[in-house]
Amino acid sequence: MTDAMGAPGTPDTRDTAGTARRTDAQEKTDPLDKTMTPEEIVGRLESGMTLGIGGWGSRRKPMALVRALLRSPVTDLTVVAYGGPDVGLLAAAGKIRTLVTAFVTLDSIPLEPHFRAARERGGIDLVELDEAMFLQGLTAAAQRLPFLPVRAGPGSDVLRVNPGLRTVTSPYEDGEELVAVPALRLDAALVHLNRADHRGNGQYLGPDPYFDDLFCEAADAAYVSCERLVAPGEPARHAAPQTLLVSRHSVTGVTQTPKGAHFTSCAPDYGRDEPFQKAYATAAADPAAWAAFHRRFLSGDEEDYHLAVRAWHKEQR
Amino acid sequence: MTLPATPPGATRAEYCVVACAEAWRGDGEVLASPMGTVPALGARLAKLTFAPGLLLTDGEALLMGDVPALGARPEVTEGWLPYRRHLTMVLGGRRHVMMGASQIDRFGNQNISCVGDWHRPARQLIGVRGAPANTLNHPVSYWIPKHARRVFVARVDMVSGVGYDRAAAAGPSATRFHELRRVVSNLGVFDFATPDRSMRLVSAHPGVTPRQIREATAFDLRVPDDPDVTRAPTPAELHLIRDVLDPTGLREREVPS
């Protein structure tokens, strides 16, 4: 661990759902306290919203928040993500009207079965972009620009399947014609980080920040879940300052969800749960098996989920 | 005609590793991004021999300072390449990727997105990923472990990676940095060094006939009457492949002998 596990003074008392509650002292003294429960966060989301989800593929996805979203009535979403099982689960639940992405994958398992099934039954409107186009779109949104240019798209069928995409001609002597990627402005964003304080300053401790800071800056409201809520100042005490990825000015709510990225990876706290992901993918490829999987793992709350996963692992031994 | 059989000792998979490695010859200090087992071995082999300047990632965000066996953790990290910098590197052109292809056509248009009508595909694949940007910004090669008519198609269903004809039609900013270096399959090596930039056979792997390749290709492939034979791995290369880079023989699973 690169941080001080259980550092003294950490305002980390948990209720039965494993969610950190602010202490009385903080409640009185800090008007910038943004701690919420996952249910409170999902309660801020509305049907029809454009929702950005951080992480990449099956890496550091805010799965506890996705699971809370699955338990909510919120639906008809436009999801913007470098897609993984977050997209798969929401698609299986019929909550995605439109998906903006460059791929959906489980990384160690190349194809996401739920996404695949949803596409093959025509159940999702897809805005299929190139990875670099997606990045330019997010960056444009964070910078309040209408678009950013990119050398990607021409010649490919991305332009055919996105007839709304326009090109822009360089005003300089080169005169190059480039694709103008429209800003991917988000109503809300969900990201998962290793540590955060109660004001929403978030820290990643793994090798890749992905684009979580951009997702937060591109959103009208961003919600951070984290492995552990720690006292302000703690994250910088135990790691280089550039690990402080997400800054509180771009965060609306923060919540502690231990193992909240499961079954995706959340290095260095834990790696991807490969056996469980395999079980997920196998079940997802078959409606009857999926119903059983859903009943066993996804019919209760977050605590029930982790208990069921633990029991499942015991059976596998 | 019959070509000489595989020399004793070198398997088809090992010829493929060398053919993939050759894609990166002369590339200098660029990121080699191999997709698949045989390309990953090829890139590592190239780095250990004739292309020492190549940069290689660990599959996530670190640049490896050593050249470990497939699946082994690197002991030396020489750099940091999270996805945001990776994408910037793509746009900056200091990269040569060897991608896979569910479909590829005569001019090198590639599809990894879906099979069938895009609006409701018969088979949804991974998505276009970075292929549209890759092909417009830096050299791209392809690796196809099973050469067949359903892969080497007359027309791809969703152009992800851009081929020569489509780049030319899209104009100067599409052709400016566009370059398809080579295509390696389990049957041979191909490039686009023809007047109309259509695919041609460069060399057939030992034991493979031009006729076999033609029959496994659904478009009109240029095949010379007397094609070269893919170069054999040297004893030193065979040692590196077998004893250093792939001691468990993962290559034979991707290209069974």
From TrEMBL, chain A:
Organism this protein belongs to: Streptomyces longispororuber
Region Disordered, residue ranges: 1-37
Organism ancestry: Bacteria, Bacillati, Actinomycetota, Actinomycetes, Kitasatosporales
Protein name as catalogued: CoA-transferase
UniProt biased composition (Low complexity): 8-20
Superkingdom field: Bacteria
GO molecular function terms listed in the Swiss-Prot or TrEMBL record: CoA-transferase activity
Biased composition (Basic and acidic residues): 21-37
Coiled coil: none
InterPro entries reported in the protein's UniProt record: CoA_trans_fam_I (IPR004165), NagB/RpiA_transferase-like (IPR037171)
Automatic annotation (TrEMBL), chain B:
InterPro entries: CoA_trans_fam_I (IPR004165), NagB/RpiA_transferase-like (IPR037171)
Top-rank lineage group of the source organism: Bacteria
SMART domains reported for this sequence: CoA_trans (SM00882)
GO MF, one annotated term: CoA-transferase activity
Stated family: Belongs to the 3-oxoacid CoA-transferase subunit B family.
Name by which UniProt lists this protein: CoA-transferase
Source organism: Streptomyces longispororuber
